[in-house]
Amino acid sequence: MKNIFNEPTDRDEPIWRYFRPDRFLDLMSGEHLYFASARQFQDPFEGAIAVLPPGTNFDPRFLPLHERGERAFEKLRRLTKICCWHRATYESDAMWQLYAATWKGVAIRSSPRKLAEAIAPFKLRENYTSETLWSGNVRYVDLLQEGLNVSMLDRFMYKHRVFSWEQEFRLIISLRLAEEFGVAVPDKGIMVAVDLCQLVDRIYLGPALAEDGVQKIRLVAESVGLGDRVRVSSMLGVPRYT
User: Fold this and answer.
1) Residue 57: band (very low, low, confident or very high) from pLDDT cuts 50, 70, 90
2) pLDDT digit string (tens) for 218-239?
3) Domain extent listing, the chain
4) pLDDT band at 159, cuts 50/70/90?
5) Is 79 within 8 Å of 174 (Cβ atoms)?
């Protein structure tokens, strides 16, 4: 796993991934992490090098060039596969609400070191070379004020400052060269094999997860040797007022 910025990072920093229960069960049964295509994200600025103020129009003299550039960029987004994690020392209520079915999901805690040890080399096909796995902390900039002059890969490690609350750690696999060499690339995401015992430090049960869901999560965790790593959310703690 190569750091995309070639800079030292805290390899033991806690990172989190929040799941709906069905997605978590898919991870446990399939032992694969999902890397989505960059164009699958809701962020409308994903991969942008600048953001124009609202209401700004393109000069029509440059529209044909703009359209060609947009088509090329859409291809780049299809060929860039990303797995996102949240950097935090503690669980996050916002993440529970947004990504874990409004408190009814599951979260796993890991670290960059554990990811590096857990992820298997990825190949699109058996007779083709393994792809490079890139990683790093996302950098947040004001794209209304600053235009990026970065590589085709690096642009996916920058985000508009309005998303800085995400505090993202990203894994990226670029399949641009693979397609140039004639290897078929899926339009959406890819599944990358992982060693669950290496990957998972803790499993946290969502604070609103129903009892039958709790039992299902516990059973599947035990089946893959992770039963002792299951914890309940701290949001289930009992408040004291006096």
Assistant:
1) low
2) 999 999 999 999 999 999 999 9
3) 2-236
4) very high
5) yes
